[in-house]
Amino acid sequence: MKEVIVISGSIYGNLFRISTWGESHGKGIGVVVDGCPSGLQLNEEMIQAYLNRRRPGQNKYATERQEKDLVEILSGVFEGKTTGTPISMVVMNTNQRSVDYSDIANYYRPGHADYTFDEKYGFRDYRGGGRSSGRETTARVAAGAIAKSILSQLGIEVCAYTKSIGDITIDYKNCNKENILTSPVAMPDLTASLLATELLEKRMEESDSTGGVIECIVTGMPAGIGEPVFEKLDANLGKAILSIGAIKGIEFGSGFNAALSSGSKNNDNFQINEDGKVIKLSNHAGGILGGISDGSEIIFRAAVKPTSSIAKAQKTITKTGENIEVSIHGRHDPIIVPRAVVVVESMTAITLVDMLFMNMTAQMDHIKKIYKK
Amino acid sequence: MKEVIVISGSIYGNLFRISTWGESHGKGIGVVVDGCPSGLQLNEEMIQAYLNRRRPGQNKYATERQEKDLVEILSGVFEGKTTGTPISMVVMNTNQRSVDYSDIANYYRPGHADYTFDEKYGFRDYRGGGRSSGRETTARVAAGAIAKSILSQLGIEVCAYTKSIGDITIDYKNCNKENILTSPVAMPDLTASLLATELLEKRMEESDSTGGVIECIVTGMPAGIGEPVFEKLDANLGKAILSIGAIKGIEFGSGFNAALSSGSKNNDNFQINEDGKVIKLSNHAGGILGGISDGSEIIFRAAVKPTSSIAKAQKTITKTGENIEVSIHGRHDPIIVPRAVVVVESMTAITLVDMLFMNMTAQMDHIKKIYKK
Amino acid sequence: MKEVIVISGSIYGNLFRISTWGESHGKGIGVVVDGCPSGLQLNEEMIQAYLNRRRPGQNKYATERQEKDLVEILSGVFEGKTTGTPISMVVMNTNQRSVDYSDIANYYRPGHADYTFDEKYGFRDYRGGGRSSGRETTARVAAGAIAKSILSQLGIEVCAYTKSIGDITIDYKNCNKENILTSPVAMPDLTASLLATELLEKRMEESDSTGGVIECIVTGMPAGIGEPVFEKLDANLGKAILSIGAIKGIEFGSGFNAALSSGSKNNDNFQINEDGKVIKLSNHAGGILGGISDGSEIIFRAAVKPTSSIAKAQKTITKTGENIEVSIHGRHDPIIVPRAVVVVESMTAITLVDMLFMNMTAQMDHIKKIYKK
Amino acid sequence: MKEVIVISGSIYGNLFRISTWGESHGKGIGVVVDGCPSGLQLNEEMIQAYLNRRRPGQNKYATERQEKDLVEILSGVFEGKTTGTPISMVVMNTNQRSVDYSDIANYYRPGHADYTFDEKYGFRDYRGGGRSSGRETTARVAAGAIAKSILSQLGIEVCAYTKSIGDITIDYKNCNKENILTSPVAMPDLTASLLATELLEKRMEESDSTGGVIECIVTGMPAGIGEPVFEKLDANLGKAILSIGAIKGIEFGSGFNAALSSGSKNNDNFQINEDGKVIKLSNHAGGILGGISDGSEIIFRAAVKPTSSIAKAQKTITKTGENIEVSIHGRHDPIIVPRAVVVVESMTAITLVDMLFMNMTAQMDHIKKIYKK
């Protein structure tokens, strides 16, 4: 180990800020939310509903580890409502079965952060990835539940689902939560969902894994959120989503297809409809023009790589520099996508709330109001 | 106009920070760079070389506006070397020909930020996009030249080029700057470059435009840069690149193709080569594992939408709510990609320098050294 | 109550950051420390020792509330050493005796934040001050214990003590911790300490309170910490100390006396001593020149106002706008100073660690080292 | 010189941010203001009026250096009004007479940052202090002029003046700008002002200098600005003022005298006056309770040390480690206070604007309004 290291960068946001903590194999995982407005209805059940969506052990496509992930709110809520003060939430770890990790400790798993952790810090917490463990996202989801609740007050809904698993892709326009929750892989087209589970069975038999794409749709978003230079709405959403492990790309609206298109096809034409409302005749922009929301649906997709831990033999090296072949056994999902769906929703919601708050600076008349009261 | 507005968010970075200012039709454009180390060789010629790469009027695929874009350094440099103090640079505007913008002032150009500006601020600077003008990137490129110079000292090179224009895509592995600069469209495969210019001619005849993809390759990047939670290297690069206008997506390594792949194919296997060095047998990860650089090439691609301003007729609405059809005439590139290449390089370089600086917090032994001296 | 409020601003620091949470009458109080280096010895006993210094109920000059204030570490420590990841600490509340606060709820206590809270938020948590309660500093002290431990590794000691209570002032040059802890009022001159307790007895009899001054001395501080423009060492310490409730002023070195002095007397002359070391013949500057530490002792004093809650009759107003007279009974210290001493030490230590980390950006050669390894 | 250094920390503020640049002996000095609302009347004359107040060469108590300090606005203003975009301002240097600084280069001036710069950076810009030169404050005053203009729109006035020079202290309650500007030492009691100039004459004859105190009064400040934990109003003002060179202390309201007082005397009692308005019967708190403005005048005092550069002989050391005696000749004010008055006003105004903007996050109903429009 290097003499001393710092694994920092666990605080996210500007005016609505979250500070996450905890390790996969420590006492628990938690988050402090600074900047949440008062008067929001909030209780443990509401948070729990979101946590359950990313909880392991829900079905055979998710790791078998049986972790209840029960959240406790320690501050910031009084008589079922937020008070405007920091909200501290904790999920204590209950299932830390003592596995023999000595194997993993000695070599670098392909596709994992093992090698980069060792290069950066001179050591790593081989017992489950430490801060780069997927378990860290528990804290993000707990904070995301609060952010979604704020957005909901404003009529804004964030909805993500599995757009594709391997080459099975769905074309889904209607964010029907029910079907998303019914599907074991969060794929609301239930026929495709069935095909997808068959694909996963096949991959599991092959001791292999698969990737996929998550689509996220934000409805009810007002026009005008985002700043035109560095603090573009898409730039900040991009950072938020790419900060989730295993995500390798993000595209807004037509995304990479826009690169193949022409201006005349890709531009969304404006129109006044019969009700006198401004509409766009298409939404290739994904709801963002010049970094600012345009009032239509915000749509983006995130590419998720296949689970790195596979039982199939792979070449790698030991810490001491030998070439070896490894098969990684243990509790591993054949796909990351379904459990990452709620994490994408959470990071999206947290970022939108933060940007809504930042946007208020554009409103000097508001200051005047404060003064005159 | 709303009573009062603020167009903020013009400062970027944490420890290496840039503060950009200026409008397309004001006195000039500029940037202050805070946090640049001393001792770097720096003069106006070095900055100018980068500015020239994004300058308009270089050939017929770039707008005809003849702007020399001459940079002046106002502080932070003494006898050809940086002093460690803030570096202020300015490019005075010289070509503000008084065009009749009254047309544009009255309607919303499809694909532009006209509508979102009006919704957000209640007004817009129709004379050229104001702060959301491509001209703002002049300041980023000037700062990027400094960042690239710092990286160069560390043996790190950032190289971007046109990967595709419309459906003409090249497979380029060798970042040969010469060919990139030779091609009028920054496409280093000169045969493909010729085809691409033919496509552009065609689109121009059709009064239309096209999109494309920029690929960026970072060589010489040490392993260990990036933090494992929110401050992942790919998350920060994602924000940097998506903060450039017209960019609709970014993917690292295999990116969206990883979603179609299996773990056994997508994982990059490690190997000790004959020289005893750690290598990866592939680079699907694009040089980043768990948000931390792994020492191999960092590779990402950015999708650029077609130029929004086209002469072809489009439907849109006036500010007063009438449906009309417009043809946008004036000085407009048929493609954004070639001039955006150096902007991508710049934002990448600025972000890498900032993250290299942030990384230093991981090194407590360094503090001890300071103390003991 | 206003419809919705946010009580934000509970995160402090740049690279070494603390995020505090909790209310006086909620489940508990806590803090997350982001950016603490690994390898530090840390256990609950070490933190507890600091918490005990600000704990209520220690003697008759501190409120009688019997709160054990037992800290629990939830993350970031493994086998007695920090791991470099966020450290989450919690102190559960145990003594929330249900007092009748209905009185206080109806009027504004002079000297308290009651009125400003009501004006800002339209409501207040009258059960003990909410986030502006002195109890919030528990979290700062827990974080301060960690910061002091880091500084200790670097040979830097932060020592604060009671310089004066009312008009009893001591001239103390030797930061002998033992005497500070022996004195019930943290005044290391034990003769003066006795006089001070007599003064406190008198004030208690009069149903009144008194103020005082805390002096803080930092020894072992290397020269060179602090930035010359906005991020001056004294500027940041000033913010840190003034963020503690009841502190009304801060002065460095000769402070306000420097205003009465002449340049020839106030300038600290430099000298090479017999050992060839640079010394200053005086320390009117308090160890900081131009915002940067000069290697000598850092000395500052903070003025603490008298406890606002007194039993003596005072004029005030009710929420409904009537002029009344009130006597505030309950558990209140006749002086704030002694318990604030460890809070001053904590905020100083946290700020020094943060600035030591920021300082590292001055060291580009370090980056080169990273690269070359 | 150390291999590479960074002199960073030249950006101040959160939502209203200023980025200063320039050296005493470079091409010029400037500032970029990010986050200024649109619609403010602004022209060079308005800025110039403030700059003239700190300009050297106004009378014999200010350095003789004849610098016109003419400001030019480069962006963010259109037809005499701000546009909401970043405002770039520059003051070109005109009087860089080539003085022989070789002397100063070889030794450390007592009271200056010479020694700490050398210790921190391994070198210093001996030609006038570089970034720690008083000349850097030119940029702060230019930005402060804008901040004061914003405050003025809200009915908030910031007024600073010389409270004392040496032992000549005035008791001034009425911030009459006219008298402040009439006095050559910014001391509005003109009798005392005369005595003060006599004291300065005496000190000049003795080749010595003197210190003093600046008092700053903010009128029209609404209640409710400031956050109750780390972002207290007094904490942020403290940092702002202590970031000005030569300032050694700050106290709010009764300040250090509060430490000598009792609760019954120091508490400001509330009263409803005849007009039904809430008043305080005293203002020992200086207008801030619990870190939040209470609607009364904000009052603080800053201690300014005597000018360090004096012709009187002082002991010091050379860079090569010899003990010498020096007399510092050249253009030096016998007192810093009068020219620092407008700098105090500027930093106060900038901080108040920033905190007013931050305060807006407390107003969630505002978001709803945005959404519903």
From TrEMBL, chains A, B, C, D:
BP GO annotations: amino acid biosynthetic process; aromatic amino acid family biosynthetic process; chorismate biosynthetic process
UniProt: NADP(+) binding residues: R54, K60
Catalytic reactions of this protein: 5-O-(1-carboxyvinyl)-3-phosphoshikimate = chorismate + phosphate
Signal sequence interval, chain numbering: none
Alphabetically ordered keywords of this record: Amino-acid biosynthesis, Aromatic amino acid biosynthesis, FAD, Flavoprotein, FMN, Lyase, NADP
EC number of the protein: 4.2.3.5
One GO CC term on file: cytosol
Free-text function comment from the UniProt entry: This reaction introduces a second double bond into the aromatic ring system.
This protein's name: Chorismate synthase
Species for this entry: Anaerocolumna aminovalerica
Classification of source organism: Bacteria, Bacillati, Bacillota, Clostridia, Lachnospirales
